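Hi there,

I know you've been waiting on this one. I reran it after we fixed the sequence typo, so this is the corrected version. Both the input and the resulting structure follow.
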Amino acid sequence: MVSCRWKFGRTDGVTFSNNMRLLRGGAIANYVHPNESSWRLNDGHLEFMDGHGRVTSRFSDVQTVNGSAILTGEIFSLMSTLRHTLEQQSRLWGNGNTKKKTAVLIRTHLTNIKLWNLIAYLRESPLYDLYVVGDETQGPLDTGSTPFIPHSVQHCADLGLQVAATNHPNILWLCGDYPIHCAKAVLGDYDYYIQIEYDVHLTRQNPLFLEGLINRMQTDEGQRYDFVTTSIAPAYPNWDFARPAAKSFEKLYYGGIFALVVLSRRAVEHVFNARLAEGKLAAAGDHEIAHCEIFVISALMNAGFSCGHFRELIPDCIDSFYHPGRPDLSEPNYLLTDLPTTNHAIEMIHPVLDTQEYLSRLFNANFSNREKLESLHEYVSNLDSRHVLTETRLNVLGHIKHRLATMS
């Protein structure tokens, strides 16, 4: 949203601004009115607030027309059926004239405000082409005008990839590299492929971080890296996640969180062939398939490919606070409306969730009821002790206190 200019008006045709800007931190530029003093995202909806922090408009309807977003929402200060409108105007980045050598793939299995927000600030750059790579195993997805590449478990099987793993019921969770192979099969040959998951938040909310990575992947002397991830460390064969990979590789490595990865074309091709070979081994005996965060880096490191992590390219750019599978109840998870801003070197935060998805992960965390009860009490105490709480966190707190009452 911050990468766009907006036409702000009402549904009766009145226009207040043709050049409104929604700035980072909640400020509004190029328009002045007491009822629109600031903005925020709350539970997936854009809201305008007055100078006292009261919500004056909430944009609950979003549609895409000719590639631009149009938002409409209720006006709380008027007793009428009129609604406010925001129409996306020209963006801050123009298309380049040179042939783009990088494909950026937003991986998702759903459509929500977090996905639309990511698309809005990544959709135009002179250095890459943007695609949504959507998992349609459970049904079709509509991503508007953004170029869309569907994939599914059946698509993966059609490419020859093994989909009958016995060590996890969701093969597309286990093998996060599978969508890249599905995309490359229809995209042609880019020099690099960047896969970013929909729940990643780039703190500057523009393409500059991805462009910085692209510019650092190659040197004047040639290719510098074939694969870049959040971290690289040795993995041990007796680890449950590593054991399936030990059937394929002499040395095992752990390649960090797969929420954002960069691979060269030749790296993608090598990993794809390694997956086909792994599938033949699985079909002949044990049907366990290796997790992507071990398989991809181990395949490339054992073959001598050049691999690195993001901090080597851009120091201190990645936040180390990850808890996608089991939320850390000692600190609130990153919600879409309440993001940390203390370390300005950080470029990427993951995961960033709306309230509904956060609560779903929180209440389905994999620990016993007694452990969950104790952790929830600790979490509530942590929230209660904060001097400032956003409306979203107050809503979360209310849900948790209700759940505590039913569990006690």
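Quick highlight: Residues 4-91 form one domain.

Best,
R. S.
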